Fold:
Amino acid sequence: MPKPNVKEKILEAGLHLIHQNGFNGCSVQDITSFAGVPKGSFYNHFASKDELALYALDRFWTNGEERRDVLKNNNIEPVVRLHEFFNLLTKAIINNNYENGCLIGNMSTELAIHPVFRDRLTSLYESWKHSVEQCVQEAQDKKQIKVNLPAASIADFLINSWEGATMRAKVEMNSKPFEEFDQIIFSSLFA
Structure:
């Protein structure tokens, strides 16, 4: 297996540290030290920490593709797919001992004041919503949803509720918010 190049090392270190400590909780020096490369190497590959953070956000999104693929598996009932999808997201948070949360949610609370981050986060939320919305629409078509609301609104609600549970779980360092999300969502919305 080839060694990761310097840019890749910096990107992975940036993703790790920004996810763990937040954008403002780590410096370029922290990132390059964690990557094991000289600080000067950073600016050979990235114009700024902002640019690195946008790449890290994209990498985080790409890394979640396998989980999102569950939503497309037509061999499984749509409600089961939705349940499994949110369970996979939850397991990722629990497996990190609640320390990191969701990078999209973390950056939303920390960096939404900056237009470039707000635009990128908005785009990611729209993509996320679209993936969930398609599955919700299938569930509606099969009469598996108890409420009569647009699939897009339900998808937004599911994402917003899960992100809220993630923030609470990160603060409280336990799974109770996820258990409540799961119990309330899958007993009240879905047949």
Summary: The domain at 64-188 is CATH 1.10.357.10 (Tetracycline Repressor; domain 2).
